Amino acid sequence: MLYFCPASVRVRAASGAALKPIQSINAHPSNCICIKFDPTGKYFATGSADALVSLWDVEELVCVRCFSRLDWPVRTLSFSHDGKMLASASEDHFIDIAEVETGEKLWEVQCDSPTFTVAWHPKRPLLAYACDDKEGKYDNNREAGTVKLFGLPNDS
């Protein structure tokens, strides 16, 4: 089992019911904020305050690729159902969607405000995301956000 230790900016591998550490990996030079495993079990990704997303090989525990298209701390990550795409978001006003195997940018989903949650549909290439829309074109007197979708037939 892998778990995240934000105080030491490390990802640690542990085993057994007591979760005794068996390996520690220096993942980023600043605080890690989020971690996600791809559904195939081949990779996990970490997002950090340094605005980098790191892709790690689960078997070898080595970083195979970094994504550096965001300017603000990475707040959320999500792998697509087939593990081929990785969405990452932050206070930047866009969501970066990358191809996992090459690191190539597939889409940049424009947003009107920071995005703090992204999640792919479990069986389709459909991304749900929540933005901090309280000061935007929506009613700013309410204490609620908005959930949006990317990947519908008329999205590009």
From TrEMBL:
Claim: Repeat is one of the keywords in the record: yes
Keyword RNA-binding (UniProt): no
WD repeats: 25-59
Cellular-component GO terms for this entry: THO complex part of transcription export complex
Record key words, sorted: Repeat, WD repeat
GO biological process: mRNA export from nucleus
Domain Anaphase-promoting complex subunit 4-like WD40: 71-121
Database matches in InterPro entries: Apc4-like_WD40_dom, Tex1/THOC3, WD40/YVTN_repeat-like_dom_sf, WD40_repeat_dom_sf, WD40_rpt
SUPFAM superfamilies: WD40 repeat-like
Classification via PROSITE patterns: WD_REPEATS_2, WD_REPEATS_REGION
Family: Belongs to the THOC3 family.
Name of the protein in question: THO complex 3
